[in-house]
Design a protein that fits this description.
14% strand; 2 domains; 9 helices; Glutaredoxin; alpha/beta; two-stranded parallel sheet; 224 residues
């Protein structure tokens, strides 16, 4: 018979955050071993720009609620592993790319800007078990380069134009595996750099979106 103390401990265990399985897949052998160990799993191919940050942020939200081991591949650094996934699945390579595997076979893929809550919701609901408690995902979680840049601007070491140019370029080239919260915060100042196909001059005056310095200070506070 379960004692009250044991029941309390079981409840505490169920409520405690559960660490997400997030595995770097650096070689073809890593890919094979990961898929062998996890009958239901996903592979996330990380590219070289903010699309990766956005896509992983969406995935991170679902991993908090669902139990799904994820292997990630930084395609530029670990090209043989990325090519191996392409060979295994027969799917055209994209980055970012999310592929759901069951018993080593691809069941679902979604790519680039199509990695959205609307795309993932039905798949996770139908295929991926719900966690007993809240999950925690270890992301790259390094916003220090942004903090330094914003502090330089707030403290007067950068002009409005110089700050806007450097921030947007930094954000556009950021392929970190970030949480959805971080992505939303960092994208708040200037939006999606891909919207400015004619060049960053299309952003217009830095102050067009309101008092830039006040908005930057607010963002610094929220980032902590």
């Amino acid at each position: 018979m379960t004692t009250p103390d044991q029941q309390h401990a079981q409840q505490a265990d169920a409520q405690a955050p559960q660490q997400q399985v997030l595995v770097p897949l650096t070689t073809p052998e890593d890919v094979d071993q990961f898929l062998k160990e996890h009958p239901l799993a996903a592979v996330f191919k990380a590219g070289t720009c903010h699309k990766t940050m956005q896509g992983f942020g969406v995935l991170e939200q679902f991993l908090q609620r669902h139990e799904l081991p994820v292997g990630f591949i930084r395609v530029v650094d670990w090209r043989p592993a990325s090519n191996h996934v392409t060979d295994l699945t027969g799917l055209v390579h994209h980055s970012p790319q999310l592929i759901l595997f069951k018993e080593g076979q691809p069941q679902f893929e979604v790519n680039n800007w199509d990695i959205t809550p609307e795309a993932l919701e039905p798949v996770f609901t139908a295929e991926v078990p719900v966690r007993a408690g809240q999950g925690t995902v270890s992301t790259d979680d390094n916003v220090e380069p942004y903090r330094r840049l914003m502090n330089d601007f707030v403290e007067g070491r950068l002009s409005d134009w110089a700050f806007q140019d450097q921030y947007v370029n930094m954000f556009r080239d950021d392929a970190s595996l970030r949480s959805q919260r971080e992505f939303d915060l960092l994208s708040r100042l200037f939006g999606d750099p891909d919207a400015y196909h004619g060049g960053l001059h299309q952003l217009g005056q830095p102050q067009q979106r309101g008092d830039l310095k006040a908005r930057v200070q607010e963002l610094l506070t929220e980032l902590g």
